Amino acid sequence: xxxxxxxxxxxxxxxxxxxxxxxxxxxxxxxxxxxxxxxxxxxxxxxxxxxxxxxxxxxxxxxxxxxxxxxxxxxxxxxxxxxxxxxxxxxxxxxxxxxxxxxxxxxxxxxxxxxxxxxxxxxxxxxxxxxxxxxxxxxxxxxxxxxxxxxxxxxxxxxxxxxxxxxxxxxxxxxxxxxxxxxxxxxxxxxxxxxxxxxxxxxxxxxxxxxxxxxxxxxxxxxxxxxxxxxxxxxxxxxxxxxxxxxxxxxxxxx
Amino acid sequence: xxxxxxxxxxxxxxxxxxxxxxxxxxxxxxxxxxxxxxxxxxxxxxxxxxxxxxxxxxxxxxxxxxxxxxxxxxxxxxxxxxxxxxxxxxxxxxxxxxxxxxxxxxxxxxxxxxxxxxxxxxxxxxxxxxxxxxxxxxxxxxxxxxxxxx
Lengths: 255, 150
Prior knowledge:
The complex is a heterodimer of chains A (255) and B (150). With 255 residues, chain A is an alpha+beta fold. Chain A has helices at 17-21, 29-40, 55-69, 74-94, 99-114, 128-136, 138-158, 160-163, 178-186, 195-205, and strands spanning 11-16, 45-49, 208-213, 223-228, 238-243, 246-251.
């Protein structure tokens, strides 16, 4: 890696879409049209993540927690999030992931979510700015990424019939069996996630996610892949931006 | 708050102390959270019968997010096992210590995996002399090419 180039933070501050657009101005006109389409439809900001192979899990975790902070019924949202999170431990136990191996990561995630409603030593609850600082620290950030990786792996292994046949090696695209896919792709850091992992994780967290596909395939619109696992199908989804090989968080203009 | 590695290693150590190591593995030394030493022996009939090796783990503050640096001890009269994935300087070419490391693994899980690895033919890697001449001190700094899983 060239050390002269400053590395992007694990998660960056919100930036206008024009900053992303400028990177394509000498490139594909279809990408530019798609970016303009997003802006026209209210997605005029983006929160970018480091391209370290963990960007899906990190983006999803950040946007998920930020959604809880911004929820109109914050106490209720945090309460149900914590009870879903609590139940995920059982999923990990059933999949044979040792408590010793996951509990530190779990606690970091739980503590972060609790701090949305429970004031810390300074008497304040978690806001978006502090959330950003927390996610820029490798310790907290990576703990949460790992917990989500373990949960995704457990979800796939416990429901192997639903996922078997869709698992391919991220580089070679060769088919893989459930156990080696989970061991080598899902549970290892730095391995990019695909729709199978997204589907499994949304199911485990009972989450709605919209994935905007900025892939230069069509110039007239941007396709959104919708994952619906919240018990309320109309619950506000987490919106992520997918470009081939990378995930960022898409930010919508407040209405 | 204690570093993530100290939190985790304290738990791993407690479990080793309360439940013991698997057969053929003993904890020699764990005085801190930066370096642990084990002996490892292949049980039952094998080419390595009766041979005991010392295995060293070094941890950075990011363990278990980052993998431990694991190698056989080759000082003080000790030698590394003769194996196609083990170099004479003690370095080990195993994907679980490199790009397939996962925090789901523990120190004992690594010991057990390496113990079961020591069951194939007794030869040095084909590039042993060249590798050992140029190898960095820390095996994690080597970008191994994992060509098979024997």
